[in-house]
Amino acid sequence: MSIHELNTTDVLQRCGKCAAENRIKLDSLEVGVARDDQTDAGVVPLPACPTCRSTEFLLRSPDNEPAHPAPGSFGHLHRMLVDEVHAELVKRKKVIPLLKDKQGAVDPKLAKPVAAEDVVRWFPQGLKIEARLSEAARAKEPEQ
Amino acid sequence: MADRVDFYFRQRVTEAELDLAFALLEKADRDLAADLNIYGIVSGAVPAPHSPVPDLTVDLTAPARAYDNLGQRMFFGTGQTVDCAVDLVGIPTDVATVGNERWLGVFLRFKRLLSDPRTDGNSQQVFFRRDESFELVVRQAPEGLIGVAPKPALQADELLLCDVRRRPGQTQILVGDLDSSRRQAFIFAQGTSVSVVSGAWSILAPLAATVQASLDEVDAELRDHFTAAARRHAATAIDYVAHGFVGAANVQAALDEVVDDLTTGAGGSSGATRVGVDASAGAPNALAAGTVKTQLAALLGFLNTHVSAATGAHAASAIVATAHNNIAGINVQSQLQEIVTDLLATGASAPGAGLVGVDAIAGAPTAIGAGTLRAALVTLLGGLNGHVNQAAGAHAASAVSVADAGNNLNAVNVETSLAEIADALEGDHFRGNEASPGQHRTIRQPALGGSKALILDSNASGTAPTHLRIYADSDSVWFTLNASWNGAGWTRDSTLYNSAAFRFGRNSLEFLHDFNNEATFTTWDRSWNLPMSSTTNSAFELTGSVQEIGRLGMEYSNADTAAHTLAGGGATNFRNRFPASPSSITFSSLSQSSGFTGNPSTFTVDRDGFGYFSYQTIPALGTVWWFGTYTAVA
Asked: Do B136 and B70 meet the contact criterion of CB atoms below 8 Å apart?
């Protein structure tokens, strides 16, 4: 599963198992997973696919992660789109309660937004990954 | 003066005596005229066709005066008309024969006109008046052929006024029929009888000092002048009025100026600029009216254009040529075509090569005698076939040189070259006279240079997908399929196929794959690197976009007799190390218990794997499980 578009209201998800496309309201999402008193602020759980009940977890890139080894690849673009979804939710303070302080504030450092110049460079048509042949399809050779 | 008679006192004068006195006076008058040789037509009596309508009469103008040879005076004061149809005796003057003509003479003759008749003493009638008068006489000559018919003879006591021509069937006498060339015009006195004084003359030198001699001298001078025998004008003595480009004032200077101006070659004013010429039509070129100079310039231009023409100056068919030998054409076009046709001929009877001569060419063992090219080719073919058909010993290899344009050999002939090649080959191959001839011994290569030295290039399958190359650089040996090193990057043999490689280095082993099918690329889309020298070296490390699907699951129980919310979980390793932490992990259930709600959650994800857990409310002594797959995208 993966997401392919982010706008001001929702996220477009394409299910990798059943290929269903699901539009998910941003306001229905929250940043973080809690396990007892532990939290993982880099995770954004998505609701289960209405068709196949698969569950996807978007994972923000680690703070110290080096540059992606394959710039422009689907993996690289998906990484940036997930970071933007995560940053937008933090901006909207859509995080689990354990990630808020006592006053209900959210530490903006939780987010790792994509640099503006990278957005312009890699998403000239907006925050979406253009529909194209999957890598698996592209890798097919004439006789395959 | 006249002779006189002297009548005397009481003389009884007779008729004869009175007549004598008048006769003497008349004789003196006529002697004077005769002595002065005065005779001829003084004026008038000019003939003309009858007016207003010409017929066979001739009109004579009046008044007319004339003296005959006897000094007798003739006069008429009114115009006269002479009938030419008959002569003086009434014989017709017609011309009977076609092609003939007849000449008539119209003469004036003296005649007395008698009048005032009286009766004398003898009772005879006499005429007291005998006035001077005239009569017109027509005389005819015999007819003759046109142009040679004679004219009537002149009469001693008559004066010829004119000759008249009669023609067959003639009804009118016209101007052309009247001839006054023999008209006996008035002669006042003989030139020899009149003297002249020539002492002051500078040109004339008459033989005698008479008018006749002077006129003869004038005639001689004029004859010399007019016939150009002598007395010619000097050109300088003839005036000339300036005209055109000639400004001289006499003929000599004018001619000199004309010659000089016509012969000069001075630029812009040569003689040719002074000679006019009218336009000349023609095609393709025509000449406009102008001067000789302008037309010469035009002609020169036409000629130079024609001579300088690189192509199309003449149709070859327009150039005459003389038939020669076997060429029968009469112009260049037909002769060239005939030559080409003859030279291309392949018939055995008259081949083209049989028309080309060749001189003798010395040589050994084969020589070519003088003859035709065909004979020479027959000789060469025979010699060549004889050479080629030699079963052995045609050449010694040492007699065959090698050009070695690539500078690959030290040897200069086939014998030594073969030896040199065999020497070089046997270092790594078995020789032809050894077992396993041609097969390799150990393959040894010296340093080949370059950023990646090509060790092997094998396209044994004949297809791009398995075109194998082996390269070596300072760290690794590369084995590639459908990719060659161009010095700065990789080039596909075919863009229809992916490329693959593995790199075998001293510290790492790496598999490489490129699927974008671009013509060239510098980095591989995916790689699986086994870092053999790294402290973490148990798994391949991936680069490029990666998606992995794997298995995970959990099952746990509530051992208590009351329901509890229990936590379950675990961790999963990715099969290889991801290039970065995954950006998405999806859990899909394959099998789960009815009491298991939802899917597990993930926790602490990194490039090596992830943790997962789930809280489930399990009834007393109950068990729950969830088995499924994960899909990780990085």
From this structure: no
